[in-house]
Write a structure and sequence with these properties.
With 159 residues, the chain is α+β, with helices and mostly antiparallel strands. Helix content is 39%, strand content 21%. A hairpin with a 2-residue loop joins strand 2 and strand 3 (67-76).
Length: 159
Protein backbone atom coordinates (compact mmCIF):
# COMPACT_ATOMS: atom_id res chain seq x y z
CA UNK A 1 0.00 0.00 0.00
CA UNK A 2 1.30 3.40 -1.01
CA UNK A 3 -0.96 6.20 0.22
CA UNK A 4 -0.86 9.59 -1.46
CA UNK A 5 -2.52 12.59 0.16
CA UNK A 6 -3.78 15.13 -2.34
CA UNK A 7 -6.38 17.90 -2.59
CA UNK A 8 -9.97 16.91 -3.27
CA UNK A 9 -11.02 17.16 -6.93
CA UNK A 10 -14.53 17.29 -8.39
CA UNK A 11 -14.06 13.75 -9.72
CA UNK A 12 -13.75 12.52 -6.11
CA UNK A 13 -17.25 13.70 -5.21
CA UNK A 14 -19.15 10.41 -5.37
CA UNK A 15 -16.53 8.48 -3.39
CA UNK A 16 -16.17 11.21 -0.76
CA UNK A 17 -19.93 11.38 -0.34
CA UNK A 18 -19.84 7.62 0.21
CA UNK A 19 -17.16 8.07 2.87
CA UNK A 20 -19.13 10.78 4.67
CA UNK A 21 -22.22 8.55 4.49
CA UNK A 22 -20.19 5.72 6.09
CA UNK A 23 -19.18 8.11 8.87
CA UNK A 24 -22.75 9.25 9.44
CA UNK A 25 -23.99 5.66 9.69
CA UNK A 26 -21.14 4.70 12.04
CA UNK A 27 -21.70 7.72 14.29
CA UNK A 28 -25.47 7.17 14.28
CA UNK A 29 -24.80 3.74 15.74
CA UNK A 30 -23.16 5.53 18.66
CA UNK A 31 -25.22 8.68 19.07
CA UNK A 32 -28.53 7.80 17.37
CA UNK A 33 -28.81 11.36 16.07
CA UNK A 34 -27.05 11.34 12.68
CA UNK A 35 -28.91 11.63 9.40
CA UNK A 36 -28.69 8.28 7.65
CA UNK A 37 -29.49 9.28 4.06
CA UNK A 38 -27.03 9.99 1.26
CA UNK A 39 -28.50 13.50 0.77
CA UNK A 40 -27.20 14.42 4.23
CA UNK A 41 -23.71 13.24 3.26
CA UNK A 42 -23.90 15.36 0.09
CA UNK A 43 -24.96 18.37 2.15
CA UNK A 44 -22.10 17.75 4.58
CA UNK A 45 -19.51 17.72 1.78
CA UNK A 46 -21.05 20.83 0.21
CA UNK A 47 -20.93 22.55 3.59
CA UNK A 48 -17.27 21.59 4.04
CA UNK A 49 -16.37 22.89 0.57
CA UNK A 50 -18.24 26.15 1.19
CA UNK A 51 -16.56 26.62 4.56
CA UNK A 52 -13.11 26.06 3.05
CA UNK A 53 -13.89 28.52 0.25
CA UNK A 54 -15.11 31.12 2.76
CA UNK A 55 -12.61 30.72 5.61
CA UNK A 56 -9.63 28.95 4.06
CA UNK A 57 -8.32 25.45 4.46
CA UNK A 58 -8.55 22.36 2.29
CA UNK A 59 -10.45 19.16 1.69
CA UNK A 60 -7.86 16.42 1.23
CA UNK A 61 -8.20 12.82 0.11
CA UNK A 62 -6.06 9.76 0.76
CA UNK A 63 -5.53 7.68 -2.36
CA UNK A 64 -4.31 4.10 -2.57
CA UNK A 65 -3.42 3.49 -6.22
CA UNK A 66 -6.48 4.84 -7.99
CA UNK A 67 -8.88 4.46 -5.06
CA UNK A 68 -9.87 7.26 -2.68
CA UNK A 69 -9.83 5.54 0.72
CA UNK A 70 -10.09 8.49 3.10
CA UNK A 71 -10.87 12.17 3.38
CA UNK A 72 -10.23 15.06 5.73
CA UNK A 73 -11.57 18.59 5.85
CA UNK A 74 -9.24 21.18 7.41
CA UNK A 75 -10.57 24.68 8.01
CA UNK A 76 -9.15 27.88 9.42
CA UNK A 77 -11.24 29.01 12.36
CA UNK A 78 -11.79 32.70 12.93
CA UNK A 79 -9.67 34.07 15.80
CA UNK A 80 -11.35 33.53 19.14
CA UNK A 81 -11.20 36.62 21.38
CA UNK A 82 -11.13 34.58 24.60
CA UNK A 83 -7.86 32.83 23.66
CA UNK A 84 -4.38 34.24 24.02
CA UNK A 85 -3.31 36.07 20.86
CA UNK A 86 -0.66 33.50 19.87
CA UNK A 87 -3.25 30.72 19.73
CA UNK A 88 -6.40 32.73 18.97
CA UNK A 89 -6.72 31.34 15.45
CA UNK A 90 -6.78 27.58 15.21
CA UNK A 91 -6.87 24.98 12.49
CA UNK A 92 -9.83 22.64 12.77
CA UNK A 93 -10.23 19.14 11.37
CA UNK A 94 -13.96 19.14 10.80
CA UNK A 95 -14.20 15.78 9.03
CA UNK A 96 -11.94 12.76 9.04
CA UNK A 97 -13.08 9.41 7.69
CA UNK A 98 -11.32 6.33 6.41
CA UNK A 99 -13.14 3.71 4.36
CA UNK A 100 -14.07 0.90 6.74
CA UNK A 101 -12.13 -1.61 4.61
CA UNK A 102 -8.92 0.41 5.04
CA UNK A 103 -8.99 1.37 8.71
CA UNK A 104 -6.05 0.53 10.97
CA UNK A 105 -3.46 1.02 8.22
CA UNK A 106 -2.14 4.47 9.17
CA UNK A 107 -4.25 6.40 6.68
CA UNK A 108 -5.90 8.51 9.39
CA UNK A 109 -2.47 9.33 10.79
CA UNK A 110 -1.30 10.41 7.33
CA UNK A 111 -4.31 12.72 7.00
CA UNK A 112 -3.73 14.15 10.49
CA UNK A 113 -0.08 14.76 9.60
CA UNK A 114 -1.31 16.68 6.55
CA UNK A 115 -3.69 18.71 8.75
CA UNK A 116 -0.78 19.55 11.03
CA UNK A 117 1.35 20.55 8.05
CA UNK A 118 -1.45 22.77 6.73
CA UNK A 119 -1.95 24.37 10.14
CA UNK A 120 1.77 25.11 10.48
CA UNK A 121 1.90 26.53 6.94
CA UNK A 122 -0.76 29.06 7.99
CA UNK A 123 1.17 30.00 11.13
CA UNK A 124 -1.24 28.17 13.43
CA UNK A 125 -0.03 27.02 16.80
CA UNK A 126 -3.08 24.93 17.63
CA UNK A 127 -4.94 22.19 15.80
CA UNK A 128 -8.36 20.99 16.98
CA UNK A 129 -10.50 17.95 16.21
CA UNK A 130 -13.68 16.58 17.68
CA UNK A 131 -15.07 13.13 18.33
CA UNK A 132 -18.58 12.30 19.43
CA UNK A 133 -18.93 10.96 22.94
CA UNK A 134 -18.78 7.20 22.76
CA UNK A 135 -16.47 7.04 19.74
CA UNK A 136 -13.65 5.60 21.81
CA UNK A 137 -11.72 4.36 18.77
CA UNK A 138 -11.45 7.87 17.31
CA UNK A 139 -10.66 9.46 20.66
CA UNK A 140 -7.85 7.00 21.38
CA UNK A 141 -6.42 7.48 17.89
CA UNK A 142 -6.48 11.27 18.27
CA UNK A 143 -4.86 11.09 21.70
CA UNK A 144 -2.11 8.81 20.30
CA UNK A 145 -1.50 11.53 17.70
CA UNK A 146 -1.02 14.08 20.51
CA UNK A 147 -4.45 15.66 20.88
CA UNK A 148 -5.75 16.15 24.41
CA UNK A 149 -9.22 17.01 25.67
CA UNK A 150 -9.81 20.75 25.49
CA UNK A 151 -13.53 21.49 25.44
CA UNK A 152 -16.58 19.52 26.40
CA UNK A 153 -19.85 20.36 24.70
CA UNK A 154 -23.15 19.36 26.24
CA UNK A 155 -26.48 19.00 24.50
CA UNK A 156 -30.08 18.85 25.62
CA UNK A 157 -32.87 17.65 23.36
CA UNK A 158 -35.94 19.86 23.70
CA UNK A 159 -39.33 18.31 23.24
Amino acid sequence: MSIVIRPYAAGDRAVVIGLVHQLNLYEDGISADRARDVKAAEACLDSDLARVARDGGAVMVAVDGRDVVGMMCFVLEQPQPYLRAEIAQVGWVSELVIDERHRGQGIGTALLEEAERLARSHGMRRLMIGAIVGNHIARKAYERFGFRPAVMELSKDLE
